[in-house]
Amino acid sequence: MSFLGTVADGIFIALQVLIGITSAYLAVLSVFGLRRKKETITSAPQKTFAVIVAAHNEEEVIEPLIDNLKKLDYPKELYDIYVICDNCTDRTADIVRQAGAIACERFDDTKRGKGYAIEWMLERLWQQEKQYDAVVMFDADNLVAKDFLLHMNQKLLNGDRVIQGYLDTKNPYDSWISISYAISYYYTNRMWQLPRFNLGLGNALGGTGICIDAALLKEMGWGAHSLTEDVEFTARCIERGIYPRWAHDAIVYDEKPNTLKASWNQRLRWMQGHFDCASRYFWPLLIKSIKTRNWAMLDAALYLFQPMRFLIIFLMMMVLLLQLVMPWWWQVTAIQDILFPTEFWTVVNILLYAQLPLAMILERAKWRAYLGLIVYPIFLFTWFPITVVAFFTKNNKKWSHTVHTRGIRVEELSR
């Protein structure tokens, strides 16, 4: 065998080891999501909240959300609703005022995007006379369970400082794309977030349904300007030893794209931002986790590694496919069979995919949702080209807006 062939074999085997270990880790960790301890609300409302909503041309959906927020089961004097009307060219600001919320209009052609809009809003909150114990963040297309602030109040009183609510889907049955998103979130909520909460690890912020202690925000600043401000703020928190916590019963309903094009653009932005954050925070978190023997930091580093893991899996699939159709091109040595036999990959993949219907059963998904499992593999496969494109365009900082149109009310929803 040539020197280059030996090197190629070594690289391929090393990648197998890396993917095999991380895949097995995820499969084992998810087991800790099978148990869910019901959290009870034992404290009366005490904390005050600034509820801020990031909105860019959201006239179709903003009024139902404000109406929803005004009817939360929480004393009205303990929370105020602020809507960031960010570079809006439609009637969003007028609708916000008519609905009884505080419209904060922002126009900035240079600092565009949700991260900059949030930072702009926080700076104004800190300057005003009225101050709050915590800040809660939603997107304009959301709807919120009426007991959301009660759960956040309890969490804050328990000592948690950064909290992520349960992300549900507002429009799961609109299309095969939206039901695929819903299945993904059943999995993420139950098999990713809940295990980490049960084990005391850091949870991942999901862009909306977030509650953050105001004193902490003033201390460390927002500072998250990437295309995935939630991933960036998560990394900044864990790097400081502050672990975001999970609130499984604090539900937020999020509108998902209905078309492959809209979904592609949204997920491309997510992957671009994730790669960007990983390039800045992965190594510091990994090195610090090794030095301090901190499992939570190691787990956070692995979370940042996920897009690269997906990219490596895609690369391995392509290599194995080429070996099947062109065996004379390159054959990896038999060592790979000794390290990870076919049975290992079969078991790991079965365990990972079986988590989807299992999560849906545990979360009591409606029977219609299970039909989405038929088309879900197609949705899953589309992540591969998206991840490849994102890797080569990770330096893109241009924010792409997802258009929202499902202006339904919380009374129309049922889990």
Strand fraction band?
Answer: 5-15%
The helix/strand class is: alpha/beta
Question: Which homologous superfamily in CATH is the superfamily?
Answer: Spore Coat Polysaccharide Biosynthesis Protein SpsA, Chain A
Q: Got a strand count?
A: 8
Overall pLDDT: 90
Biggest sheet strand order reads 3-2-1-4-7-6-8-5
Spatial shape: globular
What is the terminal-to-terminal distance? 59 Å
Most strands sheet = 8 strands, mixed
CATH class: Alpha Beta
- Say what the CATH topology is: Spore Coat Polysaccharide Biosynthesis Protein SpsA, Chain A
Q: Percent range for helical residues? A: 40-55%
Order of helices and strands: HEHEHEHEEHEHEHHEHHHHHH
Radius of gyration (Å):
22 Å
Explain what the structure shows.
β2, α3 and β3 form a beta-alpha-beta unit. Helices cover 54% and strands 12% of the residues. The protein has one domain: Spore Coat Polysaccharide Biosynthesis Protein SpsA, Chain A (Alpha-Beta Complex), CATH 3.90.550.10. Strands 3-2-1-4-7-6-8-5 form an 8-stranded mixed beta sheet, with helices on both faces. With 415 residues, it is α/β, with parallel strands linked by helices.
